[in-house]
Design brief:
By secondary structure, the chain is an alpha/beta fold. It has two domains: about 120 residues, 3-Layer(aba) Sandwich (Rossmann fold); about 150 residues, Dihydrodipicolinate Reductase, domain 2, CATH 3.30.360.10. The protein contains eleven helices and 15 strands. The strands form three sheets. A seven-stranded mixed sheet has the order 12-11-7-10-9-8-15. It has a six-stranded parallel sheet with strand order 3-2-1-4-5-6, with helices on both faces. The protein has a two-stranded antiparallel sheet with strand order 13-14. Helix 5 links the parallel strand 5 and strand 6. Helix 4 packs parallel to helix 5 and helix 5 runs antiparallel to helix 11.
C-alpha cells in the first residue's frame, strides 16, 4: 500500500475530530468513509469532507476500499467492533477504553494472539504528546537518576451532567493510568483513592485524588478535578534522585491585557492535544505500512482497565487495593 485508506465508525466529538485531522492531511493516510448510528450526523461529516457514508459498521469493516478502521463509537461497542476488525484482518485504532469489561478485553487479546499479529491500537494519544515524550526521554538518559514520584493533575472546566464520582475515576483518569505505565515502563501494583467533598458547582460528583505505586516503588499521585471552572489543564512532573522534569503548562504565546499577564487555558482536551492526535495517526498508519505497530497495545488497554478496577474498589472500600498482575503475552513483547 502507498497509503492507508481509513474508515471511521462513530462521528461524534472524537470521530469528527479525527476526521478533520485526516482531511487536513496526515502522511500515508486518507479518510475514505464514515459510519454512525445517526445517519444524519454521518452525512453531515461526510459532506463536509467529501467521503462516503456507509450505513452499517459491519459493512464499513468489510468494505474492500477500507484498509484500516477507527472505532470512535460509544464505549459499549468498542470490543465487538475491535473483534470484527481482527476477524477481517484489518488494523483498528480503538478510542479508550478498549472494552467495557475485562473479559471483553481478554477476548480481544486472545483474538490477536490467534491472528498472530498486533492489529489493535488503543487511543492513548498522550504517548505521542511532545511534552510527555520529552519526560520519558529525559528519564531514559539516566541523567536524572532513579524516578521517585510522578505528580499528575487532570482538570476540566465543567464535566457533563452524566459524569458521576465513579466515572471521574473510570472515565477521566484513564489517560493518567496509561501515561504512568508508559513513562515509568513498569506496572502499577496498588491503588488508594481519597475524595474531598463535592463542590457547589457539581454536587453530584466528587473530585478524586488517586495514589498509585509501581512495582519498583515509584509513587504516582493523580488529582482529577472535572469542574475546575477555569479551563482544561493537564500537568505532570517527574521527580527523580538528581532532578525533575515537568510539562510546560503554557502555550507558545502569552497575553497582557486589562491588568493581567498570562495565557489562555483551553476549553477542553482537543486543542491541548491536537498535535498528539495528529502524531498518533501518523505513527499508527506508518506502523501499518511498515508492519511494526506502535502506540498502546490491547494489553496496555487491558492493564489500564485493571488499574481502573482497583481504583474503583479502593474508592468504595477506603482501603489500599492491589492491582491484578498478568504476564504480558509474547505477542506484545516485540
Amino acid at each position: 500500500m502507498a497509503e492507508v485508506r481509513i474508515g471511521i465508525i462513530g462521528t461524534g466529538v472524537m470521530g469528527s475530530d479525527h476526521a478533520s485531522i485526516l482531511a487536513e492531511g496526515v502522511a500515508n493516510a486518507r479518510l475514505v468513509a464514515v459510519q454512525d448510528f445517526s445517519r444524519e450526523r454521518a452525512i453531515s461529516v461526510a459532506g463536509q469532507l467529501g467521503v462516503r457514508v456507509i450505513a452499517e459498521a459491519d459493512a464499513l469493516i468489510g468494505d474492500p476500499e477500507v484498509d484500516a478502521v477507527m472505532v470512535c463509537s460509544p464505549d459499549e461497542t468498542h470490543a465487538a467492533l475491535a473483534l470484527k476488525a481482527i476477524a477481517a484482518g484489518k488494523p483498528v485504532l480503538v478510542e479508550k477504553p478498549l472494552a467495557s469489561s475485562l473479559p471483553e478485553a481478554e477476548e480481544i487479546i486472545r483474538a490477536e494472539e490467534k491472528a498472530g499479529r498486533r492489529l489493535v491500537q488503543v487511543g492513548f494519544m498522550r504517548r505521542f504528546d511532545p511534552g510527555y515524550r520529552e519526560i520519558k526521554q529525559a528519564l531514559n538518559t539516566g541523567e536524572f537518576g532513579r524516578a521517585l514520584f510522578l505528580h499528575c493533575i487532570h482538570r476540566n472546566a465543567v464535566a457533563p451532567d452524566y459524569l458521576t464520582s465513579d466515572l471521574v475515576i473510570a472515565n477521566s483518569a484513564g489517560h493518567e493510568f496509561d501515561i504512568a505505565r508508559f513513562l515509568l515502563d513498569e506496572e502499577i501494583v496498588s491503588a488508594y483513592v481519597a475524595s474531598p467533598p463535592a463542590t457547589r458547582n457539581a454536587p453530584n460528583r466528587q473530585p478524586q485524588f488517586i495514589l498509585l505505586q509501581t512495582a519498583s516503588g515509584v509513587v504516582v499521585d493523580i488529582e482529577v478535578f472535572t469542574d475546575a471552572q477555569y479551563g482544561y489543564d493537564v500537568r505532570a512532573e517527574l521527580v527523580c534522585e538528581d532532578g525533575t522534569v515537568a510539562l510546560d503548562p503554557s502555550p507558545h504565546t502569552s497575553l497582557r491585557v486589562k491588568g493581567n499577564d498570562g495565557f489562555r487555558t483551553p476549553a477542553d482536551w482537543r486543542p491541548r492535544f491536537r498535535q498528539a492526535y495528529r502524531a498518533q495517526l501518523e505513527a499508527w498508519t506508518a506502523g501499518i505500512l511498515s508492519g511494526t505497530p506502535t502506540g498502546a497495545s490491547a494489553f496496555d488497554g487491558f492493564m489500564a482497565m485493571q488499574v481502573t478496577k482497583a481504583c474503583l474498589h479502593a474508592w468504595k472500600s477506603g482501603e489500599r487495593v492491589a492491582v491484578a498482575q498478568h504476564e504480558k503475552p509474547a505477542l506484545y513483547r516485540l
